[in-house]
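Lay summary. Proteins are chains of building blocks that fold into shapes, and those shapes determine what they do. In this project we predict the shape from the chain. Here is one chain we studied, written as its sequence of building blocks.
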Amino acid sequence: MSSQKRSRQSLYTFLIAVIGIGLLLTIIFTAFSIGTAGLLLVFGISYTSWKALLLFILVFLLYGLILDLFSIAMIGFAKVYLFQTSLFFPVRMASDTCFTWLALQFAEATISGVSIEWTGALAIASVLFFGEIAYEKWEAGKKDRS
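And here is the predicted shape, written in a compact code that computers can read:
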């Protein structure tokens, strides 16, 4: 009898664990979906379908890759002449943000199911620039610790 109680108790424990993990995953997925939709709404992006949004992201990455080459060239040119001055950071920020904004505008013009306000595109470009700066500082700090 005691072996049946143990097997029944382990079955209940297993079922409770599976239900708990399932609920946790459902909550996480729902929060992620609502958070992503809310973030897109905050930045002024409206889309007709998830397919249009995915195509927009892929086209943005393609245009961004091409336009980033021009941005890198401009930043490299500015680094030669402005590195020791206080003008380097604003020139870098303007260059990087403008080319990212341009890539967002080209992607919006290419994909018909997505519309983005210019202020939202500018905000996204600025966030991406400051994220890039933070990543570079983190990488530099990681190298210094090694």
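What the prediction tells us: The longest helix spans residues 2-42.
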